[in-house]
Amino acid sequence: MKEFFHSVTLNEDKCVGCTNCVKRCPTEAIRIRNGKAFIASERCIDCGECIRICPHHAKRARYTHMDALDKFTYKIALPAPTLYGQFNNLDDIDYVLTGLRQMGFDQVYEVSRAAELVSEATRKMMYNTEMGVNLPRPVISSACPAVVRLIRVRFPDLCDHVLPLKSPMETAAGMAKKEAMEKTGLPEEQIGCFFITPCPAKVTDIKMPLVIEKSCVDGAIAISEVFPQLSHKMDHLECIEPIANSGIIGVGWSTSGGESAALLNEKYLAADGIENVIRVLEEVEDERIGDLDFIELNACAGGCVGGVLCVENPYVAKARIQRLRKYLPVSQNHLAGGPVPTEMEWEEELEFSNVMTLSSDLGEAMRMMVEIDNIEEELPGLDCGACGAPTCRAFAEDVVKGACRKTDCVFVYRKQMQKVAETLGELEGWTPSKEDGE
Amino acid sequence: MSMLHLEYQVPGDDFTRAGEASGDVKHKLKKLGYEPDAIRRVAIAMYEGEINLVIHGGGGEAVVDVDPDRVDIALIDQGPGIPDVEQAMQAGWSTAPDNVRALGFGAGMGLPNMKKYTDEMTIDSTVGVGTTVKMTVIPGRKG
User: Fold this and answer.
1) Regions of chain B where pLDDT drops below 50
2) In this structure, how many other beta carbons lie within 10 angstroms of the beta carbon of residue A267?
3) pLDDT digits (tens, 9 = 90+) for A248-258
4) Quick check: A21 and A48 in contact, CB under 8 A?
5) How far is B128 from chain A (nearest CA, A)?
6) Residue B140: how many CB atoms within 10 A of its CB?
7) In the list A171, A244, B116, B126, which could disulfide-bond A114, CB 3.0-4.6 Å?
């Protein structure tokens, strides 16, 4: 089994052992152990909720830094369209793209260009039955890596509903590299592609991709890292290069509902924010949502503009992008006729990972469940988090798994101490003499 | 005696809570690593039954027994009862009032769907006394 890489990590010095992140985590991956947060690697989906909630800034995202560019002869920036929403009074995307060039990138390739191709490929796969593609409905978007990872660990039955197309980031990297190799004659190793990312899930998606062998992207730099230098460069531009080449559809992917709108079919649902995403997935699983072709899910509120590595309030960014899109053409990038190019499709199937199950043996798991139910009855049901688990139920599970003791619950501990005190009380006035003990 | 016995009270006429019991059963079956298709069928059939308790039964009780080779679900209410079970089993036949239909329920697919997704189903109903629906899902069957 591959070792896990996670973008989301803990700064132990800053962690005070409060339970904010423990309670927030959608996969119950965090516990407090020895006074510090501990993230169970196999459960973490890198959604970044813990980074967002931590009042002590002890959770952080690992990402690539600008000095990583030096390793490559030819450097390509792949800006997520979310980047455009970070700047006030922006009326021309080329300001941003030229600014990136000034920061040391030889080429800038908008991810929104590839997003337009992914939208077209999705339409082909969903509605062009002559191509022999018959995707189970509703089709669930595969663009948000946190959502795909969530489905992988919590929704076994929905794995085959996920759209088997690579993300716009991945497609953009493949195309940009190919173009650059033709243009410069350089070998692939000397060309570096860097995604300008709104979220840690994308960082993980590059380092540990799920449905492809290896990512074409060489690094992901946080929007918050490029922002100060980029805005400075943008203030001092001498000429603006005409780089921007995407339309309403591509840029729209940055906000919730953008990907769906690009399907040009109204039978869709777009949900954002991790709790809402989970509620929708539960209902899809129970076949309670009928008559929908497509479901777009974004782990962050507002969509990618809500990513924890953004600098601007997601709704402000959304309003800006709305205004920016207004004067753009609908779409500037198109696929050639015929089937969807194979390089845009997944290389492997999305396989369910049973990291949430109690035991790989059903009988054993059932015995454990009965024990968990019994222990839960002894617990106060306050979900106070003092034990370091998100809920009493999760704590009972940890006890049965042997990860902690029942007396780690302060209420159980108090009861136990009362019993001890009562026993001692009964012995009051009677002290064993030395002879008795010897 | 089943290996795992679960009981739920389902309140009547409360649509905000409908699905809590079936949701909990689904969650537990997933924790157990139960066969995914069986989980799906239990979740769908039990949710439909739970909705019936809410709409028609005036609330009631859901009892679930889980064993490695079968899941038994019993939905028990003291509601008005079903005068003609055979008619109620027909797709599209419903007695749901308009306000319930406005919520998207009452399409007359509840009982037929429950039968479709389970391996065994019996309905025991007496007018004025109540209804008990028993369903069994066996992993590896149907699907």
Assistant:
1) none
2) 12
3) 999 999 999 99
4) no
5) 30
6) 10
7) A171
Q: At what angle do helices A145-154 and A200-207 cross, to 10 degrees?
A: 70
Place of tokens 């997003």: A115
User: Under an 8 A CB cutoff, do B3 and A352 touch?
Assistant: no
Max Cα–Cα distance, chain B, nearest Å: 42
Closest Cα partner for B44 from B25, B17, B66?
B25
Secondary element (H or E) of residue A226: helix A223-235
Q: Is B20 on the interface with A (CB under 8 A)?
A: no
- Give the distance from residue B125's alpha carbon to the nearest chain A alpha carbon, in angstroms: 26
Secondary structure element (H or E) that encloses residue A369, with its range: helix A362-378
pTM value > 0.90: yes
Check the CA dihedral A176-A179-A183-A188 and report its sign: positive
Q: Which of B26, B33, B36 sits opposite A360 (nearest CB)?
A: B33
Say if residue A1's pLDDT is above 90.
no
Amino acid at A196: I
Asked if A94 and A244 touch (Cβ cutoff 8 Å), the reply is yes
Q: Do A362 and B26 touch (CB under 8 A)?
A: no
* A365 touching B (Cβ < 8 Å): yes
The CA-based dihedral angle spanning residues A367, A369, A370, A373, taken in that order and rounded to the nearest 10 degrees: 160
pLDDT digits (tens, 9 = 90+) for A316-365: 999 999 999 999 999 999 999 888 999 999 999 999 998 999 999 999 99
> Is residue B131 within 8 Å of B77, Cβ to Cβ?
yes
DSSP 8-state assignment for residue A290: -
Q: CB A369 to CB B28 under 8 A?
A: yes
Are the C-beta atoms of B137 and B51 separated by less than 8 Å?
A: no
Which of B22, B31, B51 to mutate to probe the A interface, most A CBs <10 Å? B31
Q: What is the ipTM of this complex?
A: 0.86
Question: Contact A358/B32, CB-based, under 8 Å?
Answer: yes
pLDDT 10s digits, A128-154: 766 667 799 999 999 999 999 999 999
**How many A-B residue pairs are in contact by the CB < 8 A criterion?**
59
Show the tokens assigned to A422.
Answer: 């009562």
CB B23, CB B89: distance < 8 Å: no
